[in-house]
Design a protein that fits this description.
By secondary structure, the chain is an alpha+beta fold. It has two helices and nine strands, in the order αβββββαββββ. The strands form two sheets. The protein has a five-stranded antiparallel beta sheet with strand order 1-2-3-4-5, with helices on one face. A four-stranded antiparallel beta sheet has the order 8-7-6-9. The two termini are 31 Å apart.
Length: 139
Amino acid sequence: MKTHQFIFEKTQAILNNHLGERLTVDTDKYDDGYTETRLTITDTDIWIAYDDNEITIGSGFNHRHYYPEFDNLDKVVDDLFNLFTQKKRITKYYKGNTCYKKRTEIEIEASNYKELSTSSTWLFHFGNLQKKKYLMKIN
C-alpha cells in the first residue's frame, strides 16, 4: 500500500468511527483500468479522493492534488486536519452577475489564511471591473 493510500484509509477509518452514516465512500472503475475511490461527508462540501498516483482533497469544486513523488505528504495530513477543524473563507469573483473565479482558503491562525485552491471558469478577467463576495463557513 502506498503512503497516500494509507492516509486515505486511516482518514476513512477515523471519520467512519465518528460520523458513521454521514460518510459515503464510492469507487469508480473504468474500462481502461483506472480506479478512483472517493469519500464524501453528507451535508458538507468536503471530499477526499485517491487513485494509484495521487490523493486529492477538496471543498466543493475547489480541490488540491498531492503527488507522493513530488509533495510532502505531511501537508496532506495538515490540510485535512485544518479543513475539518478550521474556518474556511470562500471568495467569489464576479463580472456582472457571472462568477468567474472562486478561491477557497483555510484559516490557520487568527485572521491568517492559507489557500486551498482557486478555480476559474474564464482565463481572462474582462477588464478591471469586478466584485468580490466573501463567504465564511464553519464546519
